[in-house]
Amino acid sequence: MHLKDDLVLLITHSGDYFTIDRVAEALSRRNVQSFRLDTDKFPMDIKIQAYFNNSQSHHRLEYADISFDTQQVKSVWMRRLWPPDLGDKLSPQFRVASTRESLAVFDGFWDSLRDARWVDDIHKINAAENKLYQLRVAAEVGLVIPQTLVTNNAEKVREFFDQVNGKMVTKLLKPLSYGMEGSSFFMYTSRVKKEDLQDAETLRYCPMVFQEQISKNRELRAVYVNGNLFVGALDASGYDVSTQDWRRANQDSAVWKSEKLPDDLIRRLDDFMERLGLKFGAFDFIVTPLEEYVFLEVNPTGEWGMLERDLNYPISDAIADALVDI
Q1: What pairing do the DSSP bridges indicate for beta strands 257-258 and 208-212?
Q2: What is the pLDDT of residues 124-182, one digit of tens each?
Q3: What is the predicted pLDDT for the residue at 244?
Q4: What's the CA gap between 259 and 49, in Å, rounded?
């Protein structure tokens, strides 16, 4: 089965759900054909051929009875990029090399799609995932950010703890898992207590992010899609766990409410996204009891399914429109 031209490629993995289906449905309503590429199925189930000579290059993908050339692809949604699932039969000594080579082939495959419309370009996503870069750009466009220290120096952490009067949280620079429900391997933003600093010397093995703990009235997930904003708010005013990460809570019990952002904040987010070169981003903000909006981070491939599900936001339609350039 050969797919049509002007194809939209949806990049994800076989364990993804809801959001990928909603975008595919939104494209179908626009009479646009899409193909879901589960990246963990390469190289075991998906075949890729890349041909090069002095006059041209040619990439083709085959999965079951479906095949297409990358020249047929008009747009790409980079939802998730997953390492290969190599099963349990491959010897451990070959697993690392097989994974590395498979990802290298994907790098060439993405390059063959360089003329397509991306939401978003994988190189811009990789750059934007740097949380330190985010903080710098956020401050430069006028967003309020927490006092932040990133270090592997235990003594500097103790000094910072005193500087913020013992109100300090910690988190990692890079996520350990993805998904609406998180996983047991995810390290959430956590409050640091004085007794925790007794083990601070272990930072020499792994630097971490330390920030002042911001008093919360609400926590926001603001989903930005090509100039459109969809904002969900969680009440964080009445319980102690509000000092921690909202993702730690049971998502089935989280009560999301719609919220509008101030116009001046929206303009700053437009500037921020233009600086990062992104059409999509999932922002996390804290709203303080004094109604100050404090930027925490943006995830260039972040979750939004819970907002579409609970608040009936047309986020999947907005992504589909961005892909077909409406």
Answers
A1: unpaired
A2: 999 999 999 999 999 999 999 999 999 999 999 999 999 999 999 998 766 544 444 44
A3: 54
A4: 48
- Per the listing, tokens 């350990």 go with 176
Q: Which long-range contacts (CB under 8 A, 24 or more apart) does 165-169 make?
A: 166/194, 167/212, 167/213, 168/192, 168/210, 168/211, 168/212, 168/213, 169/210, 169/211, 169/212, 169/213, 169/243, 169/244
Dist CA 282 CA 293 (whole Å): 15
Instruction: Please give the pLDDT value at position 247.
Output: 54
Residue 240 in this model has a pLDDT that exceeds 60: no
> Cβ–Cβ contacts within 10 Å for residue 8, how many?
24
Ranges of H-type helices in the chain: 19-29, 92-111, 122-128, 131-140, 154-163, 263-276, 305-311, 315-323
The pair phi, psi for residue 25, each rounded to 5°, is -65, -40
Largest CA distance in the chain: 66
